[in-house]
DNA sequence: CGACCGATTGATCTCAGTCAAAGGTTGTGG
DNA sequence: CCACAACCTTTGACTGAGATCAATCGGTCG
């Protein structure tokens, strides 16, 4: 039996909402992680009216790119996305991965245009938050404004941590911190922090961490040999969390 | 004659404000670059009352560190600062440099605690924006809220660009893009974009770009040999801007 | 079934890091 | 005001972590 057969769609629970495109925030499984957090019931009702629940995106489908006009911030409803930024000669850097409840496109607020390209890693769906309307609403809902600032600040924090990885960590430390941060985010979403599926390719991981694809592959086998984790295709199982935490820099 | 003798304090124009600690935003030379941008005259007067103009910081003096409690966002009034983030074993990554009009500490909004350590690179001064008061005011001044979001988004953008540098660029490309971004920022502040003083050490630059200090030093001599720029100590003069732009990735 | 794409493994190479030493610069105290 | 010390920068020689090149394997899909 190969492990490929047993892969179930990631974030299946959240994916259910795809069948109810107009599902209100109040009833959404994500509300605990998403914009609604801390908002009053009636504010939420108002917000609900401006949020557009988009149709699904297929694997590799583009959510936005620098040439798109900036009008909305996206929230992942189900599935996952990656964003990339390009050098003038076409080299690309994977800047982030996004999971349900996370906001994509906030770096476009300054300059009012997307800086990066966002692509679906698997069948996914998003909610669209029209930025102008969001701004209007923030004026009357202080908690919404607070929520937006917090989101921006959170992304800033994770970017700074990635800078530390890229600038100062060894290949192994980079990979371990990356996997531990994934584990953390899965756990926040109600999934196991000890065993999860990678929705991105080895190439995406390597690029994100400033490594070669072969290095990532070798590190995976190395981590398995050291009994720190088990990796079978896309499935990661953490075997020795303390040891990993000790080795993540 | 050594170039050291002719160095004048950087941001001298802005430094003048140090003699008028209570100088209102309206009269501040920075208002064009700073928070006041786009704010109405009477809103600004209100804002003025909550902004604390701090005494000066000496070279190497700490503005905040992770153990400090988060209460304020800082705006550079004169001089310059760097922020660093630390790995568990003490390795540090210089995440950003900050010049007059730029905001420091926004990554602390999420978690309500500073993620990084901020240190003055030279004799400097800041304005303190109490975050809670700022939040209150934002509720009544939509333009202020917009300004804050834009600032956060701008920092996010520059971090993403740095990620591209660290992940995908060669040592030379990293250094050139860094110098060109400095040039840009100096020019925005009314200084020459073709000739400016570095306020940070070679070590800070190297660390920021994920390089060794020796590599930065060698690259400087290399760029001089290629007649692309001239570097004498802390003074940088751009000689061939098109060629540099062509080589910055 | 065959073609294609992604992942693994091995062999080799290279860019930038490390180590080492010598100049320069800055700051301090007598 | 000078002299010494501490620190920063430059330059050279060598090394190594991870990239590149190359071949193979495996899984997926038409």
Named at the architecture level, the CATH assignment of the largest domain in chain A is: Sandwich
**Order of strands, widest sheet of chain A:** 1-8-3-6
Q: Given the C-alpha coordinates, what overall shape of chain A results? A: globular
Determine the N-to-C terminus distance of chain A: 37 Å
Main sheet properties of chain A: 4 strands, antiparallel
Classified by CATH, the class of the largest domain in chain A is Mainly Beta
Provide the low-confidence segments of chain A as ranges: 1-9, 15-19
Largest interface: A-B, 49 and 49 residues
Oligomer: homodimer
What structural category characterises the helix and strand content of chain A?
Answer: alpha+beta
Model description:
Two copies of one chain form a homodimer. Chain A has 249 residues and is an alpha+beta fold. Chain A folds into two domains: 2-159, Sandwich (Jelly Rolls), CATH 2.60.120; 169-247, Winged helix-like DNA-binding domain superfamily/Winged helix DNA-binding domain (Arc Repressor Mutant, subunit A), CATH 1.10.10. Helices cover 38% and strands 19% of the residues of chain A. Chain A contains eight helices and eleven strands. Chain A has a four-stranded antiparallel sheet. A four-stranded antiparallel sheet of chain A has the order 2-7-4-5. In chain A, α3 packs across α4 (142-168) and α6 (202-208) crosses α7 (213-225). Chain A starts with 11 loop residues before the first helix and ends with a helix. Residues 1-9 and 15-19 of chain A have low confidence and may be disordered. Chains A and B meet through β5, α3 and α4 of A and β5, α3 and α4 of B. Chain A binds a DNA duplex (30 and 30 nucleotides) through residues 2, 4, 170-171, 201-203, 211-218, 220-221, 233.
């Amino acid at each position: 039996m190969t492990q490929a057969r047993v892969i179930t769609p990631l974030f299946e629970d959240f994916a259910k909402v795809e069948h109810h495109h107009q599902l209100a925030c109040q009833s959404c499984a994500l509300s605990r992680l998403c914009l609604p957090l801390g908002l009053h019931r009636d504010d939420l009702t108002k917000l609900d009216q401006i949020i557009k629940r988009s149709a699904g995106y297929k694997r590799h489908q583009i959510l936005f790119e620098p040439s798109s006009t900036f009008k909305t911030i996206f929230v992942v409803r189900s599935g996952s996305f990656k964003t990339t930024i390009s050098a003038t000669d076409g080299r690309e850097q994977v800047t982030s991965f996004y999971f349900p409840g996370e906001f994509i496109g906030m770096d476009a607020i300054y300059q009012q245009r997307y800086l990066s390209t966002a692509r679906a890693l698997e069948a996914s769906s998003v909610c669209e938050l029209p930025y102008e309307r969001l701004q209007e609403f923030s004026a009357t809902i202080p908690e919404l404004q607070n929520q937006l600032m917090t989101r921006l600040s959170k992304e800033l924090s994770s970017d700074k941590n990635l800078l530390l990885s890229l600038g100062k960590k060894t290949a192994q430390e980079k990979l371990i911190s990356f996997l531990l941060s994934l584990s953390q985010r899965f756990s926040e979403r109600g999934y196991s922090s000890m065993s999860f599926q990678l929705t991105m390719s080895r190439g995406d991981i390597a690029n994100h961490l400033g490594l070669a694809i072969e290095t990532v592959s070798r590190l995976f086998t190395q981590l398995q040999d050291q009994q720190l984790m088990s990796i079978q295709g896309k499935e990661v199982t953490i075997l020795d969390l303390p040891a990993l935490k000790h080795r993540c820099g």
